[in-house]
Write a sequence for this structure.
């Protein structure tokens, strides 16, 4: 049995590694808050959501497949949570109640496998019941196929026959086996047989004539004889024990796959509920091919910031279709870095089949997402900040390829404007010319102005809005880079207007 809820035609390889830059993505984009909201206290969901989100897809059809499944999950969230709970219950019961002492004795293996399968099939009956009762309300290809599989493979006749066979191997009426005499008169070819007895009531069984046969009895203290008889029984049930154990492992693997794949969707439901409760906009994006160079978004915001604030956050627009760069400049603390995080987070959410935090989102996929954010000073003083930035950029260069997206946040600002601008220009132009898309938050005016004048058709220029009184609206608007970031506004807010004016007055 296969689930196929995350991929149309393959199982999930949960052992595949995360991208090499996974830790940087989580830290730079603030994804921990997102994962926490998805988990909602469920320890299973956090590692699953982390993997699925960071294993970004670059396949439009694969993303649309997941979107359809997620739409069903959002529309039928109680049913999906019930299925997730049943899968978790099966795994927990197997682990808690049937762990036992693992031995190689066939009899012990058979008893454990039988008890596990009886428990599993009770849960499978419940899943079949959900498929019969609610399967018709699910519209996605993934869930339609899943429920059809439950109905086809777990029909009543099959479940009843399985239950009968499992009860039969309890051997309440004794065990019947056949064997042959092999070399040296040792027993061989032990085969367990089914009793072919017509059903009888207790009266018939009591007075029915006994079939002739040879019998023997063990003395209660005959330990060697008891051991020999037990070994004889193990030989007879060996094949059955192996078959039941393999069946139990197969069904356990099915429940693991079902729980883990649904864990991602249950996490999406929890996140959707959290953001919807704040009346934040959410939409299913329109994914485009990597080489389409489409980027049209409206109302885009950072979901991690929205989860941490009591009020609604400000969304932004960006129309960068046909452009390879987004250059973001403007006032300090005006929302530039927040917008950059929203760009990266939405790209990851789209690429794993989720909804995105925006009113509308129509964008090209990317072959990989990378970040280059400023870091704190090296505590061990092995190198300066600028050297550290260049080393990280050099390490990133080996992973950047056509179709990847690089987010830079105040990179190369650890030196003077002229030197930083020249280095930024050479690096960014080389990346763009090789097919890498770039979104760059920068205070390097010379760099931004040079791109504005020399490569205007290749970049969207956004500028953090600032009112005349210095207030920030946290909106980004298209505009030419300015030679100031209005750091004086922050100085005045911290130290007061009068002190700021006297401190900035020239010495006489």
């Amino acid at each position: 049995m296969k689930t196929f809820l995350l991929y149309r035609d393959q199982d999930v390889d949960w052992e595949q590694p995360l991208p090499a830059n996974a830790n940087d993505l989580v830290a730079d984009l603030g994804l921990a808050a997102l994962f926490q909201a998805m988990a909602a206290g469920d320890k299973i969901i956090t590692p699953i959501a982390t993997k699925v989100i960071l294993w970004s897809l670059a396949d439009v059809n694969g993303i649309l497949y997941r979107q359809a499944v997620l739409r069903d999950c959002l529309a039928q969230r109680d049913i999906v949570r019930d299925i997730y709970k049943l899968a978790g219950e099966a795994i927990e019961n197997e682990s808690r109640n049937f762990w036992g002492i693992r031995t190689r004795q066939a009899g012990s293996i058979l008893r454990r496998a039988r008890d596990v399968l009886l428990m599993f099939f009770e849960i499978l009956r419940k899943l079949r019941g959900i498929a019969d009762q609610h399967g018709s309300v699910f519209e996605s290809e993934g869930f339609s196929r899943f429920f059809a599989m439950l109905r086809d493979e777990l029909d009543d006749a099959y479940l009843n026959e399985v239950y009968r066979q499992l009860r039969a191997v309890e051997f309440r009426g004794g065990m019947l086996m056949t064997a042959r005499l092999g070399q040296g008169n040792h027993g061989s070819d032990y085969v367990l047989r089914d009793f072919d007895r017509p059903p009888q009531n207790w009266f018939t069984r009591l007075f029915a004539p006994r079939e002739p046969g040879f019998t023997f009895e063990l003395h209660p203290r005959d330990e060697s004889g008891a051991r020999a008889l037990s070994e004889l029984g193990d030989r007879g049930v060996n094949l059955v024990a192996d078959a039941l154990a393999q069946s139990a492992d197969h069904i356990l693997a099915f429940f693991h796959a079902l729980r883990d794949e649904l864990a991602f969707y249950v996490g999406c439901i929890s996140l959707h509920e959290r953001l919807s409760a704040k009346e934040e906009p959410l939409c299913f994006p329109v994914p485009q091919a990597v080489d389409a160079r489409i980027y049209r978004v409206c109302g885009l915001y950072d979901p991690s910031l929205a989860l941490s604030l009591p009020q609604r956050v400000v969304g932004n627009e960006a129309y960068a279709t046909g452009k390879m760069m987004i250059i973001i400049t403007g006032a300090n603390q005006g929302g530039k870095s927040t917008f950059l995080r929203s760009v990266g987070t939405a790209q990851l959410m789209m690429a794993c089949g989720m909804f995105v935090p925006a009113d509308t989102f129509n964008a090209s996929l990317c072959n990989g997402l990378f970040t280059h954010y400023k870091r704190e000073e090296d505590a061990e003083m092995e190198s300066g900040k600028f050297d550290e930035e260049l080393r990280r950029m050099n390490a990133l260069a080996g992973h950047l390829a056509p179709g990847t997206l690089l987010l830079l946040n105040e990179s190369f600002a650890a030196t003077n404007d002229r030197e930083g601008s020249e280095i930024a220009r050479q690096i960014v132009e080389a990346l763009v010319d090789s097919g890498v898309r770039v979104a760059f938050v920068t205070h390097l005016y010379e760099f931004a102005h040079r791109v504005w004048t020399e490569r205007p058709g290749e970049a969207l220029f956004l500028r953090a809005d600032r009112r005349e009184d210095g207030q920030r609206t946290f909106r980004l608007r298209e505009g030419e880079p300015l030679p100031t970031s209005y750091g004086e506004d922050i100085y005045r807010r911290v130290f007061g207007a009068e002190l700021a004016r006297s401190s900035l007055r020239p010495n006489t």
Q: What stands out?
A: The first helix runs from residue 22 to 29. The chain has two domains: 55-170+251-277, 286-504. The chain has a mean pLDDT of 85.
